[in-house]
Design brief:
With 383 residues, the protein is of the alpha+beta class. The chain is built from 12 helices and 10 strands. It folds into 3 domains: 45 residues; 66 residues, Transferase Creatine Kinase, Chain A, domain 1 (Orthogonal Bundle); 191 residues, Creatine Kinase, Chain A, domain 2. Strands 4-5-6-7-3-10 form a 6-stranded antiparallel sheet. A hairpin with a 3-residue loop joins strand 8 and strand 9. Keywords: ATP-binding, Kinase, Nucleotide-binding, Transferase. This is arginine kinase.
């Protein structure tokens, strides 16, 4: 007999076959059919048995959302002297790293990305939504207590009564300008590290309408970054009013996603009342003016915060995110509570001659924090 090989097909034919006589071929064909029928019958029986079990309810399929995954490998935290390095232990990491928050699917790995990426962070952690502070409380609460110098039993109190400001800056001090700002976040949206593109656009849309309701010396115009002409952008940057992209912490922390969509700046006609939309926080409400009239700047700020909050609530029914323990919620835990920072642009001749470390040490002794003329990441000018 002559053997003729051919390739195997999907029907699982043998690799080779033989040409035989007619009767032999018929017998082999019959055996093949019989074997195929047995296989098919067996498969059909198994299928029927599975269906029987399923229909009886002995086996059922159930789906539930996954909010916890196996722990990821413990990261190399490059900022070894940061608060993250101290409070994100291996034990806490194994317990919390598999959790995803309900609001935005934020994780502990995303929260500490800056402390992992950079070696010079002091705090090194961000919250992606209000759930982050609860889901990762074993990290956030002791870190917050250490940074803010409060006991674990702390709770938030707020007092925006400008009448309690008794003094002011010495009029003879070389103060160029005074600036006080607060951060605010709106209910129902993720914080900047975890906010979705659509949520960011929704925040901007809501704020455009809310700004239109402001009256008197607070009324003004909103300027979206997307499509802003170069002349307007340059002027706002030169006036130190406009925030820009390129901050490494905001980028690694996920806050510059989809730049510049959904972002912009509002300011009144005098440019003494401003609001940033969707930078590090959903809102940065700012009062500023030339000179050292701290009380006047604070009075305008308190008035503006209330007006913006009332307008947001009137348009959407939403309020600013306020936790009874943590206060007003922000992306960075260093801003929790009032979310307030007061600063002056002042000449300090000779203070930097010994270098920035000496300047920072001297400021710490006075409970002050030196910052660049263009913000936290900017540099100082002069000597």
């Amino acid at each position: 007999m002559r053997r003729t090989p051919f390739l195997q097909s999907k029907k699982r034919r043998p690799i080779a076959t033989f040409h035989c006589c007619s009767k032999e071929r018929e017998r082999k064909k019959a055996r093949a059919v019989s074997a195929r029928e047995r296989r098919n019958a067996g498969s059909f029986f198994i299928f029927c048995r599975c269906m029987e079990v399923l229909l009886r309810g002995n086996i059922y399929f159930h789906y539930s959302p996954v909010d916890s995954w196996p722990a990821a490998p413990f990261p190399n935290i490059r900022s070894g002297h940061s608060l993250v390095a101290k409070h994100v232990t291996k034990e806490k990491w194994d317990k919390l790293s598999g959790i995803e928050t309900k609001t935005s699917g934020f994780t502990l790995a995303k929260a500490i990305a800056c402390a992992v990426e950079f070696d010079d962070q002091h705090c090194g952690i961000y919250a992606g939504d209000e759930d982050s502070y609860a889901d990762f409380a074993e990290v956030f609460i002791p870190l917050i207590c250490e940074y803010h110098g409060v006991p674990p039993s702390f709770s938030h109190t707020s007092d925006m009564d400008s009448g309690k400001i008794k003094g002011n800056i010495n009029p003879d001090a070389p103060v160029h300008s005074t600036r006080i700002r607060v951060g605010r976040s709106i209910q129902g949206f993720g914080l900047s590290p975890g906010i979705t593109k659509q949520q960011r656009l929704d925040v901007e849309s809501l704020m455009k309408t809310a700004f239109g309701n402001l009256k008197g010396d607070l009324s003004g115009s909103y300027f979206p970054l997307l499509g802003m002409d170069e002349a307007t952008r340059t002027q706002l940057v030169d006036d130190h009013f406009l925030f820009v992209s390129g901050d490494r912490n905001l980028k690694v922390g996920g806050m510059e996603r989809d730049w510049p969509e959904g972002r912009g700046i509002f300011h009144n006609k005098e440019k003494t009342f401003l609001t940033w939309v969707n930078e590090e926080d959903q809102l940065r409400i700012i009062s500023m003016q030339k000179g050292g009239d701290v009380k006047g700047v604070f009075e305008r700020l308190a008035k503006g915060i209330k007006a913006v909050g009332d307008s947001v609530k009137a348009e959407s029914g939403k309020e600013f995110l306020l936790d009874p323990k943590l206060g007003y919620l922000h992306s960075c835990p260093t801003n929790l509570g009032t979310g307030m920072r007061a600063s002056v642009h002042i000449d300090l001749p000779g203070w930097t001659k010994e270098g920035l470390p000496a300047l920072k040490k001297r400021c710490e002794e006075l409970s002050l924090q030196p910052r660049g003329t263009r913000g936290e990441s900017g540099g100082q000018t002069g000597g």
